[in-house]
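#structure-requests
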Amino acid sequence: MGEVIGELLPVALGVAISPVPIIAVILMLLAPHAKAASVAFCAGWVLGISAVVTMVAVAVDPVDDSESGDPSTLASVLKIVLGAAAVLLSVKSWRSRPRGDEEPTMPKWMSAVDTLTATRALGLGALLSAVNPKNLTLCLTGGVMIGCGALSAGEQVAAVVVFVVIGSCTVALPVLGYLTAQQRMQQPLDDLRQWLTAHNAAVMAVLLLVIGVAVVGKGVAGL
């Protein structure tokens, strides 16, 4: 199990460092009615990651039927495909980065994120974690690693929990910090939002490239 957790850590960290959901939750926290929407968004984010990783892990579990625990050919191919997808997304993200004094382009829905109700924030959190191509690629990769890791049912559950906790920490921690120290957190959160907005594309490009190459390498090694 330790080897699988080790492989999962950088992928889960990639989900955690995804700037867009962090910016979204910070905007909610800086809005007049911050608590309900931000908590709901965090819950949706956790549910979305959990659902994708669990379903993929269950779906690919029969793929690895070797007694030695070596990855099957199909599992290795899946890793190569997902790793290649991460690399392609990295190139796309890098090419979309702002140049010079150009203002960074953020999703149009983000302009209204501070007015979201709790219900819509819940749905948005789930969509960003489970449908956004960058996060979906990483969550699929995590699910494949767990499913083809020759783990028992209990170990798979533990691995999913580890992945979800790490992948959700950067969304959950600002919410918890705000709820416990609202006044002190406002300025640091706003500073973090501005930095992430400016460097969103570059951060994701580097992150996806590193993870994608690593996952492709794991897949090639398993063939």
